[in-house]
Amino acid sequence: MSAIIVMLAGLGAMALGYLFYSKFIAERIFRLDPNYRTPAHEFEDGVDYVPTNRYILWGHHFTSVAGAAPIVGPAVAVIWGWGPAFLWVVLGTIFFAGVHDAGAIWASVRNKAKSIGAVTGELVGSRARALFMIVIFLVLLMVNAVFAVVISGLLIDNPSAVVPAWGAIVVALIIGQLIYRFNVNLLVVTGLGVAALYGLILLGPSVPVSLPESTLGLPQNAQWIVLLFLYAAIASLLPVWVLLQPRDYINGIQLFIGLGLLYGAVLLSNPTIVAPMYNADVPAGTPSLIPLLFVTIACGAISGFHGLVSSGTTSKQINKETDVRLVGYFGAIGEGSLALAAILATTAGVATLGEWQALYSSFGDGGVQAFVTGGAAIVGAGLGISETVAATLLTVMAVLFAGTTMDTGVRLQRYIIQEWGEIYRIPVLTNGTAATLIAIGCCVALAFGAGGLSGAGGLVIWPLFGTTNQILAGLTLLVVTVLLVRLGRRCGTP
Amino acid sequence: MPPDSNELGKKLREWLRHASRVAEEAYYAPYRSTIARARRDEDDLFMLLVFSEMMGVPNPATYYTLELQPLLLERFHDWHRRMGMEHSPLEHFRCC
Q: Helix or strand or coil: residue A52?
């Protein structure tokens, strides 16, 4: 099967979903009202509540929700064949993710832009709110523990990416200083930053870096995991303008460049999908497709994590209620298109079915490394660059996404711990450094406590990530439904 | 310079201005609230330093901070409310 056909079918279906289904949801179900006074106007303070141009807001929303997860999930789930993953990503995006994300923003906008947890507290009850916070903490714990394993694996398999991946942090630090201390024009800084990052990517294959086989009794991957947690703790404690802000900006640019490169390369090289549409011959130990497919691919189909972003920050900046359709629904389409790119890279990026089967020799194999290998082959063939450089580029992209998610995750965990400290009046928990140490301590305990010296404990409970994430999505959809019922909205009623 | 290149230069400048605005919005907007909040935290500490002597906390720099008080009076009400004090903590200085 030609990858171009699958790509056009997927993107075309999502486009139709946006044009027709989202219009139906927006006009008949949510009944978005352009004259409704949104919280961004009602509480405008120039800080949290700021009416923002819808295209800019879409960019923020999309880059906030898109990360490593829409790559990791599909890259694992294609083991059942590309067909089920493709259908779940495309149909999930159209009928679930778009409605969920837009619904979360709408529910929040209609409730003074409160977070979905707070809205739950009001509409459902305080016990549901407490459940929400626990679920969020657990989701973040799993994400941090697992992404540390994912990044360490990528850095071990692709030593050429070590210099550019860590160098990107230095580039971000310099960008932050240039903007805030030296007031250099942002466009100039952007050009310099992107050039420096891609310069490092070109340099990477010439200076591969590998850690020693064993240090202090820790194997290579455990050393990386310790270093990554150390980085996440420091990054989450630094003032945001020093590292987080410039790094997120670079990541946003990387996301658009990466998506453009992958889809452009598919169009130019027209690879063939060698993986079976439905893999009846899955390796031994692979769990059943139902229900595991629907939790393995969360981001890219439907993900509860998006509800947190939608209701936490995006809803405070909605200029007109009708913008919810573009920001929420089209944001989910952006995420779906990243997941689709991951499916194409992992199924069309290898030459033969035998090679693909070797990549996916057991459940959990393949994954992001398959995305890097497959994607590099497609990008290399499409753009005529060396596969090593292309692999370095995609590894850096995945590492930066996962790294961002990690330190943002630690920061959010810190906020939750501090909030618990305030609710239950435990002063030590309200201290930023103490809360960060507790957050990192939980992640390390999970990684090494459940996974032994390899530090892969996060993987032991990885299936729980998808389920927890989907429980969160279910809770959000429940809240949206309760709100619709309270407003007397029923499908088809005038 | 021929009029055509003038026109082109004008369009290019306009485009650059527009791109610059979009880039700035993309850079600053996601962290606007976090940075404003961090700045407010620093301002709050500064308010405490300026008004500490009036609340019974000795401050060796009072002689210098005294002249800042009139400039910060406007922010005093918001500050004491943010600090969890419903009414002004200063008996001789009531703002609400």
A: strand
Residue reference for tokens 């079976």: A276
- Confidence tier at B3 by pLDDT (50, 70, 90): low
**Inter-chain CB proximity A64 and B20 less than 8 Å:** no
Query: Helix, strand or coil for residue A376?
Result: helix
Q: How far is the first Cα of chain B from the last one, in angstroms, to the nearest whole number?
A: 66
> Inter-axis angle of helices A82-91 and A331-348, to 10 degrees?
170
With cut-offs at 50, 70 and 90, classify the pLDDT of residue B28. Answer: confident
Instruction: Please state at what angle helix A126-157 crosses helix A387-423, rounded to 10 degrees.
Output: 150
- Candidate from A56, A244, A246 with C-beta closest to B25: A56
The yes-or-no verdict on residue A218 having pLDDT over 90 is no
> Would you give the DSSP letter of residue A239?
-
- List CB contacts (< 8 A) between B22 and chain A: 56
- Give the number of domains in chain A: 1
pLDDT reported for residue A494: 55
Is the model's pLDDT at A460 over the cut of 90?
no
pLDDT at A462 over 80: no
Count how many pairs of residues, chain A against chain B, have C-beta atoms within 8 Å.
Answer: 53
Q: Is residue A64 part of a domain?
A: yes
A98, A233, A405, A446, A461 from A450: Cα distances, Å = 36, 21, 22, 6, 9
Domain that holds residue A336: 3-486
> Where in chain B are the domains?
3-82
Please measure the distance between the N-terminal and C-terminal CA atoms of chain A and give it in whole angstroms: 45
Alpha-carbon gap, residue A30 to A420, rounded angstroms: 34
CB atoms within 10 A of CB A64: 22
Measured CA to CA, the distance from residue B49 to residue B58 in angstroms comes to 10
Query: For residue range A394-430, what is the model confidence (pLDDT) as tens digits?
Result: 999 889 888 888 877 888 888 888 878 887 888 888 8
Q: Is A121 within the bounds of a domain? A: yes
Set of chain A residues whose Cβ sits within 8 Å of the Cβ of B24:
186
Least confident of A70-79, A121-130, A153-162, B14-23: A121-130
* Three-class SS state of A443: helix
Residues of A with CB under 8 A from a CB of B: 46-48, 50, 52-53, 56, 59-60, 64, 179, 185-187, 190, 239-241, 244-246, 248-249, 252, 313, 317
Provide the β-strand partners of residue A2.
A272
